[in-house]
Structures are given as structure tokens and as C-alpha cells.
Amino acid sequence: MARLSRKQIAWRVAQDIQDGTYVNLGIGAPELVANYLPDDREVIIHCENGLLGMGPTPPEGEENPDLINAGKKPVTLVNGASIFHHTDSFAMIRGGHLDICVLGAFQVSERGDLANWATLDNSRPPGVGGAMDLALGAKDVFIITDQCTRDDQPKLLESCTYPLTGKGVVSRVYTDHALIDLENNTFVVREIVEGISQEELQNMTGANLVIADNCTTLRTPEL
Amino acid sequence: MARLSRKQIAWRVAQDIQDGTYVNLGIGAPELVANYLPDDREVIIHCENGLLGMGPTPPEGEENPDLINAGKKPVTLVNGASIFHHTDSFAMIRGGHLDICVLGAFQVSERGDLANWATLDNSRPPGVGGAMDLALGAKDVFIITDQCTRDDQPKLLESCTYPLTGKGVVSRVYTDHALIDLENNTFVVREIVEGISQEELQNMTGANLVIADNCTTLRTPEL
Amino acid sequence: MIDKRVYDFDAALEGMADGATIMSSGFGAAGAPQELLEAVLDCGFRDLVIISNNAGEGERGLIKLLKEKRIAKVICSFPTSSNSEITKELYAAGLLELEIVPQGTLSERMRAGGAGIGGFYTRTSVDTPLAEGKESRSFEGIDYVLERPLTAQFAFIKAREADRWGNLTYNLSARNFGPTMAMAADTTIVQVDQIVELGDIDPEQVVTPGIYVDRIIEVKGG
Amino acid sequence: MIDKRVYDFDAALEGMADGATIMSSGFGAAGAPQELLEAVLDCGFRDLVIISNNAGEGERGLIKLLKEKRIAKVICSFPTSSNSEITKELYAAGLLELEIVPQGTLSERMRAGGAGIGGFYTRTSVDTPLAEGKESRSFEGIDYVLERPLTAQFAFIKAREADRWGNLTYNLSARNFGPTMAMAADTTIVQVDQIVELGDIDPEQVVTPGIYVDRIIEVKGG
Q: Which end of chain B has less neighbouring CB within 10 Å, N or C?
């Protein structure tokens, strides 16, 4: 069955990030988005640990352990970057100044609820990081996730069963099979990857899908 | 009757500011304290408008309109100074980080209440500035004031009649006639200027004075 | 391309209207955006609500707007200055509304507005007339008042340097309210001494990151 | 003369005891005061309460203290790291208490502790398990939870440069929690790459003013 790679999902997200956007890219798959931002756009990447204007990964041997991103990976700064302390960074996040935050998800509900920090397994230590701040603070929250878990459980649901990160915060979900907007407490499918039928997509989803009138095929380069 | 000048009161205050003290000097007479700090002490002067490490008044012609103190007078910076924005400056004040603040007063009560921002005359616009923040934030609040108003009304009272700046905040009062501590809701006289009797001082005060066992003569240079 | 530079005051003030709420940086004259304020005068706007530590100083900026009766209300910590009588005159004549806020509370309320804080508890103003009508509350035996965030449609700021992304540095104690006001307004308009190339400001020395800035106008000698 | 320099770790840690509450700067390994933390290990202190964004990273600092079971509790946003299993093991064995605080709330609570704020309302964690047991409140139809200030007996901070008054600069993103923790602790102890002469740090480039710093120890290559 046709399915986008993580890189392809990240590519698709990148196309939606307009010139002049301030964006925070969460740890994991969202970090890949930085690699696919079109060259003709100036997009300013925020890192929760106090950077605005993150640049590409440094060449091997030129990493600086004091210049890292939220995923604790070495990064660089672009011209026009700024550095600030953590409280100022989260004032920026929580004060609603970021246009977009891209996050991963365990579950998303049709009301836009996001669960991405804890499961129901209490044997492992929980950890929330900046996810709750980002989910509530950014003007738009974009989610990168698979349509289903590895054991074929849908991740897009009527209601989340895992503890929430934030309620009603998700704007748009990019999955391995589709691009889905959250509108009026409904999953509205905008784009579906080639080779997936609407029925197949619905079967992989734990809530009712509405197919947008102008729903198109989700195409990406090979990545 | 023997009476200290403003400069002499400021001199007396300065003697009590120990090496290593972080001190804020309020607008007016408190500003004079900076001129009399003993040379062998490092005292770091804070200005509410975002300076730590205020230096002396610049020579004429070398004033910088962007380098001023809380009284909006041109100042300089000492080696080791730092500059920060207003919210950080008041976080410093309100967070209890300043050792001493020297302020003027309209009235001080025997419970240490301070009134120094508004009278009962409503025809003039009120203005509080940073007085309330300083009065509550500094570890010790020292007051420079005259024992009486120009029309001979006592300024040290059982209770303030003017609107308060802060309740129970004053540690010590330096007047034109005496040095008086606030202890257990009582004015305790530590030093009296030469030529003033205890009775005369009591008659200029609107609350009961207790004379400390070791009360001495308040001596200052001619200034 | 992100380019926040504008080249005349009409462009700087786009979207402004009568009754606008404007935060204006500065402590006395240091850091006061006099040219931006005077452009508002020239544009004819009235009934302004000004949030500023002082209601002007000397002869320029807010004092000019006050003299022309363009300002309906000032939210400030200290409205009068030693070198102007206009605030006293307008207040005595009932032509100017004043809301007095302790200086630290004023600054912290703007920070709260910019940082998504719904309210905070401070000891400042407890047991004073400025706490009247405010909720109070005790934590561990210490009394606090509840203060709410303060935001504005516009912030006018004076800075030293800016690049086209809006990163700012300030000159010495002229920094004062600029960084906080830039966070707290819908539209932040900055007059700068000098516009520099992107990359000319060391990232560690940026005081206000460009994300808080909407428009920059160079005012030489401003 | 104000001289906050100390020359060995015993002097740096003076007054510490078993059960101490310590804020420790750093985001992952960037800005983590590894040598100060390891000095605590060498001094034998136990039952420590650590406030830090992460419960260690790699092999050093907090990880060493965890391995030696010196830490009773960690208040943090994210306790585990990709390169250490010790936190998971201790937690699973019931040997480590964890208090999970959203990262922005953690930082803001420390700021409140340093700035005299009695509490603040934030949207973060509303409708989540991390808001359980906390007061909630609605302002203008938006829900907030009440968060209280966080302070500590000690803050351990890594900085780039210091002068003898304790003015600090930081290196790039190693700045992270240092400036806030310095405000929030009774005693702030800083390990710096380099001690410089008073006056060598431009007043406009000081990130942490010396008023927040109690002791400085130079750790070359730290």
C-alpha cells in the first residue's frame, strides 16, 4: 500500500510553511522539515532552548556542543539569528508569537486534542519537555504522524485515550497517507496519497472523515 | 536649633552602607548619599531604570542623555556595571535582591509604614514611580526625612494619615535631628544631633520615642 | 524575504486610527520614540490611550500630543515631569484621565501580556489605595494582589540598531521599557538610529529578537 | 572589596548538606555544571533534590550522582535521555521520585521565585494530568492553572565569563536556564570557563548581573 516516508511527510509540511514564518520544529520527524524548506523562502526556525534562526546541521568536525537544538543535536545559526535564555524562549512560545509549531503525536482527536507525551504505561518515567507549552502557544499546530500505530491501531480518534498534551490545539495533521485539517471538530481530508482509497483511509481512522470537495492527490518527490 | 543639612543626613546614611552592599538611592535627597560613600568600600548602586553599578555624575559636556538615573539626571557607569531592561530591573527589586533602598518620606509610622507618594490633595496628579516596588522589595528601607514638615507638623507618627506606599517596610529613619530605628513597632532613637534634648526631639515627633541605652551624639562633618 | 523596513511615517503608522492604544517606550526622554509620536500628531489621530512610564518630559513627543489634546488617557507610574506643566493643567481641568500603576507592576503586567500569563500575584501596592478594587490573596502568610496582563494595539519603541528582520539593540539606559513593550503589542513599530545588514548584530547581543517587531524606520539623530 | 571568586570546590560548596535542594543549569549537556555536580559527589552529600530540565545526559554530572544514588528527587520537564538508562532503572525500582513540570512552567516558576511573584496563571497543562490538584481559573473565557514560585537553596550554573563581582556571560545555547536559576536560589555558585578583570565585560553584554551570583570558580575546559 502506498505510504509516505517520514522524509516525504516532512517535505509536504515544508511546502506549507510560507515566507516569513516563525516556526518551531519538535523533536524527531518534525526536525526533518528544516531540510525541505524551499530555498526562495525565509523561514525563521525557533528552538525552545533559546535560539531563533536555526541553520543547517554543521559539517562533521565543526559541531559546537554549546549550540544545539531541542533534540540536543548540533546546529548552526543563520544571519539574523538571536540567542536568549529559557524563560524568554518560553515567554515567546507561550505568548503566542510563533506562527507554527510542528509536533509528533501519539493520538489526535477530531476536536483537535493532542496526546504526545505519555502513554498509559506507568512503568516508564514520564517526560513532557516543552510539548504542552508549544501545543498551546503556537498560532497553528501541525502534526506529523502515521495514520496508524505499528500494530495497526488508528492514531486519529474521536477522543484521545492517552493523557492530553493540549485540548483543541491541532490545526492540521500530516500522515503517511493524507493531509487532514481540523475544522469544526471534524477531520477534513484535503489530500490523499496516490493508491489509497477514501474507504481505506477511513478504515485506518478512529473517527469520521469528511472528504473536502477539492480533495486532491498528495504528491511528493521520492525521498 | 541644631539641625543637619540634607548633605549631612546623606553623609550619615552613607556611613551605614557597608562594603559589598547593593543599594538603590531614591530620587532627591537619597541621591546625595552616593557622594559620601567611603572610598574604601565597594558599594554597587542600582538605578530602577536598568543600571547596576552607577558611577559619579559625568563632567560637564560629557553627559549622555541615554545614560541617566531614576531622577533622570546624567550618570556614568563604574567598571563591573551592567545594563538591563525595566522588567528585569524590577524583578531584581521585587525579588528581594537589593540590600538597601534609601527613600524620602512624607510620613513614617511607628509600625514602619511609609507614606511617600501621595498627599490628601487630589487636585494634583498622583504619581508613584517605583516607590512601592522599592519599599516592599529591598531587604532594608532607610528613610531620609526631616523630623517635621515646613509648618512644623511631625512626620514620624503613630499612624500615617497619607496614603501608604508600603506597610511595615521601614528599617531606619535618618532625620535632620536624629537616627531612629524601627524595632517592634517602636521608634528607637540611636543618635541625636548635638544641642537637641530628648524632650525637644519627642516634641517634634507624633509618636512615643524610646531612647536606646547606648544612644549617642549624631556627629557629621560640616557639609 | 522578510523585510520589516519602512521608509516613511505613513507606512510606519499604517492601520492606526482614533482611539488607538499605544505603548510608548522610554524613561523620561531616554528611549522615547519622539519622532514616531510626533508623526501621530501630524496624522491627526485623537482620543489616544497611552501606556508609558511617564506622561512625557520636556517639549517633545507625548508632551506635544498632550498639548494638542490628542490623548484621552495615560496609564503610567509617574505622569508629571519637572520640566512640563501640561499634565497637571489637563488633569486639573478634567481633560486627561490618569491610571497610576506602580512602575514594577506596569512593566510586569506588560510582560505578562506578551508572555501569555493570565495574571500574577505581587506584593507591590498591598495595603495602599492602588490595590483598591483588586483581588488580594495570601500565600504562606504574605499578602499579594492579583494583577492582570496589559497589552496594546501598538508599541512605539526607540532602539539603536535594527536589521531587516527586526532584531534590536538599545543604547545604554534607553533600553528600559522597549524590550517588554515589543512583546506586548499587536503591532510593534521601532524607530532606530541605524539599520544594519542582516548578520551584523551578534546573535548573543540581540536584545529584542525580530519576532517581536513589525516595522522599522530609520530616524537619524532621533 | 567585592570578590566572589573561590579557588577550590570545598569553598564553592560551603554550607551544603545532605538533603540540599539544588537547581542545576543546562539543557542536555549544554550549560550543565558537570564539575560542580561531581564535586558534590566527592563531598559525599546524599538525599539531594535536583531541579533541572533533564535528569542528566551521557555519563557526567547528574548521571554520576544518580548512579551513586545520591539524588532522592528530580523536578524536571524531561527526565530521560537517549544515552543513559539510569533514570529509567531507578524510577522503575522506586528509588527515584520524579516531579514532571512542563518546560515553560518550570522556567517561569523559577523566574517567579526570583522576581517576588507569589503565583501566576498559565494555560499550559490545562486539561492534562499535570494540572491535577492545581487551582484552575478562567479569565475572559480562557482556562488557566495557578502555578507557584520555585526556589532552591543552591543554584549551580555554568557560564563563559565572570568578573569578580559575578557578572556573567554565557556561550551560545548554553545560556538556557542559567540566568533564571541564578535569580531563584539562596546561594548561586557558578563555574566559568574564564574569569576576567572587572570592566572587561561590556555592561550591555552582561547577561546575569553579579547581584545574583555568590561564588565563582574557574574550571578550565569545563
A: N
Question: Is A161 inside a domain boundary?
Answer: yes
Q: Is residue B91 part of a domain?
A: yes
Counting DSSP H helices and E strands in chain A, the numbers are: 5, 13
> Is there a contact between D173 and A72 if contact means CB atoms under 8 Å apart?
no
Exposure letters B24-47 (e unless 16+ CB within 10 A, then b): bbbbebbbbbbebbeeeebbbbbb
Q: Contact B83/D203, CB-based, under 8 Å? A: yes
CATH number of the domain that residue A95 is part of: 3.40.1080.10
Q: Is residue B223 part of a domain?
A: no
| Chain A residues whose beta carbon lies within 8 Å of the beta carbon of residue D31 | 66
Q: CA triplet A26, A28, A34: central angle to 5 degrees?
A: 65
The residue in chain A having the minimum alpha-carbon distance to the alpha carbon of residue C184 is: A95
Average of pLDDT values for A79-92? 98
Instruction: Evaluate whether A138 touches C211 at the Cβ level (below 8 Å).
Output: no
For residue B48, indicate whether it is catalytic: yes
Q: How far is D1 from chain A (nearest CA, A)?
A: 30
- Among C residues 169-198, those touching chain D with beta carbons less than 8 Å apart: 169-170, 172
Name the neighbours of C, counting chains with at least 3 Cβ pairs within 8 A.
Answer: A, B, D
| H-state helical runs in chain C | 9-12, 34-43, 62-67, 86-92, 103-115, 178-184
Please tell me which chains touch A, using 3 or more CB pairs under 8 Å as the contact test: C, D
Nearest one of C20, C66, C13 to C39, comparing CA atoms? C13
Q: Which fold has domain C9-115+150-217?
A: Glutaconate Coenzyme A-transferase (3.40.1080)
Chains that touch B (3 or more CB pairs under 8 A): C, D
* pLDDT tens by residue, D199-219: 999 999 999 999 999 999 999
pLDDT at C56: 81
Query: How far is it, in rounded angstroms, from Cα C152 to Cα C73?
Result: 13
D24-63 residue pLDDT tens: 999 999 999 999 999 999 999 999 999 999 988 888 999 9
Mutate to test the interface with D, among A24, A46, A47, A49 (most CBs of D within 10 A): A49
Torsional class of D125: left (φ above 0), alpha (ψ -120 to 50), beta (otherwise): left
CB B26 within 8 A of CB B69: no
B172's enclosing H/E stretch is strand B170-174
- Top pLDDT among C55 and C25 is at C25
Q: Assess B76–D contact: CB distance below 8 Å, yes or no.
A: no
DSSP D207: S
pLDDT digit string, tens, across residues B63-101: 999 999 999 999 999 999 999 999 999 999 999 999 999
Among the listed residues A31, A48, A110, A191, the single catalytic one is: A48
pLDDT tens sequence across A53-75: 999 999 999 999 999 999 999 99
- Give the chain D residue nearest B54 (alpha carbons): D203
Residues D125-173 pLDDT 10s? 999 999 999 999 999 999 999 999 999 999 999 999 999 999 999 999 9
Q: How many domains does chain A fold into? A: 1
D near C: at least 3 beta-carbon pairs less than 8 Å apart: yes
Query: Is residue D82 scored above 90 in pLDDT?
Result: no
3-class DSSP assignment, residue D109: helix
Of C29, C53, C176, the CB nearest to B85: C176
Residue B1 domain-assigned (yes or no): no
Domain edges within chain C: 9-115+150-217
Contacts of C115 in chain D (CB under 8 A): 108
Put simply, whether B127 touches C (Cβ < 8 Å) is: yes
Full domain range(s) for residue B81: 6-218
pLDDT class of A1 with cuts at 50, 70, 90: low
Q: Taken in order A95, A96, A101, A104, is the CA torsion positive or negative?
A: positive
D chain contacts of residue C142, beta-carbon cutoff 8 Å: 118
